[in-house]
Design a protein that fits this description.
Layout: H1 3-16, H2 21-33, H3 39-45, H4 57-61, H5 67-80, H6 96-102, H7 111-120, H8 125-140, H9 150-153, E1 159-164, H10 165-168, E2 177-180, E3 183-191, E4 193-195, E5 208-210, E6 239-242, E7 252-255, H11 256-275, H12 288-291, H13 295-299, H14 306-314, H15 327-332, H16 342-363, H17 387-398
Helix pairs in contact: 1-2, 1-11, 1-14, 2-8, 5-16, 7-8, 7-16, 8-11, 8-16
């Protein structure tokens, strides 16, 4: 998903869930900052590199693709952007490493989503924002995995955009018919062209999108997540179909307008749970009742208008996102005070999420994210990423 949803739509869902304007800003900032918190940024403010929630393209170019490098990449992308739906999924035939990657395929309403939302319960607003980013991405990024894999994440020539007949200029029914609300809408197919031009923009009118370069190597970082499909899966208006190798080349149809609405309703439900309106967070539940007065408006909102919708809801101005908004506060704080800053709370929540997901992957007998142990054990034997988190927790507990 892009900033229109992670920042402005998250603000809207938080407000409908009952948070104040100020709390909504903290939540939506944290949700969007998850796409900005790189090791490069953390190094400029003196933050722990282990808390990175994403990676720059330049960082990816230098990333190692040996076992340790792949585990490092997987810990970041599976924890925050491609949350696995089913760590016990059975693909049938296949090697051990293939099955391990298959089980990291992202999707909504999995057990790890419940653990992600529960992890944010009674925690900071920053933790809520991170959880909402992860939740939203389970809808946008489903069918891709947060680990480099040419087999799992590749795209090929058979990749079609599904255009409403009226948008494509056709008046007669053609292509597939899909449910859209109460009415059926006819769709036509347009083959999508993927090109590698890092400086070029997607040409939405012609169906030309920028993706990463095809590589034969299975573990190339070019085949991480939906890199081969570029930004296409993140567009809220996008409907497409393709034939993934992991799905035995059976057709998969992705309907972002429908999925994004479900994501929005699920965020409202999740944040009402975090506020105490519900006793438990359950998969497959969406707060459609709270959202229903705005359903038509939400489904017709262009990307750029989420800001206006949020300001209409709250009657308050939503400032543009600024990734550096809290950096000076953190950088200037003493070592003893850093944990009490806005980004200090964000870093703590990010390390908690990364710890939990990595541990769950490890506990499922999958080593793609490395070795891990529960931080509460008397002796720390886990990967180095969690040392800061463990020490921080022990300091808090012994205070």
């Amino acid at each position: 998903m892009q900033i229109d949803f992670h920042y402005y739509a998250t603000y809207c869902s938080a407000y409908l869930a009952g948070y104040s304007h100020e709390d909504c800003l903290a939540i939506c900032y944290s949700a969007q900052f998850t796409d900005c918190c790189t090791r490069t940024l953390l190094s400029t403010i003196g933050g722990p590199a282990e808390a990175a929630t994403t990676q720059l393209q330049l960082e990816m170019m230098d990333a190692r693709t040996d076992i340790l490098g792949l585990q490092d990449i997987t810990r970041i992308w599976a924890s925050f952007h491609f949350l696995p739906r089913d760590l016990k999924a059975d693909p049938g035939k296949g090697s051990r490493i293939y099955k391990a990657k298959y089980r990291l395929i992202c999707g909504p309403n999995g057990d790890l989503l419940v653990k992600t939302v529960n992890l944010a319960k009674d925690k900071s607003l920053q933790a809520a924002g991170i959880a909402m980013h992860v939740l939203a991405d389970t809808w946008a990024h489903q069918y891709f995995a947060g680990t480099p894999s040419q087999v799992i994440n590749n795209t090929d020539y058979w990749f079609f955009e599904l255009l409403p007949a009226e948008a494509s200029g056709d008046s007669a029914d053609s292509g597939d018919s899909k449910e859209n609300g109460d009415a059926k809408k006819s769709f036509t197919e347009r083959r999508i062209t993927f090109r590698h031009n890092p400086t070029g923009k997607d040409d939405l009118d012609k169906g030309i999108y920028t993706g990463t370069v095809y590589q034969l190597e299975e573990n190339s970082v070019m085949s991480l997540g939906h890199g081969r499909a570029g930004h296409l899966p993140d567009y809220s208006f996008m409907r497409y179909k393709y034939l993934p190798a992991w799905g035995k080349y059976e057709e998969v149809i992705k309907d972002n307008p429908s999925d994004y609405y479900k994501a929005f309703c699920q965020m409202v439900y999740a944040m009402r749970y975090l506020r105490g309106d519900y006793s438990a967070f359950e998969t497959g539940r969406y707060d459609t009742e709270k959202v229903s007065p705005y359903e038509t408006e939400i489904k017709e909102i262009p990307c750029a208008d989420w800001k206006a919708f949020g300001e209409k809801l709250s009657g308050c101005e939503i400032p543009d996102f600024d990734a550096n908004r809290y950096c000076a506060e953190y950088k200037q704080a003493s070592e003893d005070d850093k944990d009490d800053t806005f980004l200090g709370s964000y870093i703590d929540a990010a390390l908690a999420q990364k710890t939990m997901v990595t541990n769950q992957i490890f506990q499922s007998d999958n080593l793609l994210a490395g070795y891990s142990v529960e931080y509460s054990e008397s002796r720390f034997l886990g990967i180095r990423d969690f040392i800061h988190y463990v020490e921080h927790k022990r300091k808090k507990e012994n205070a």
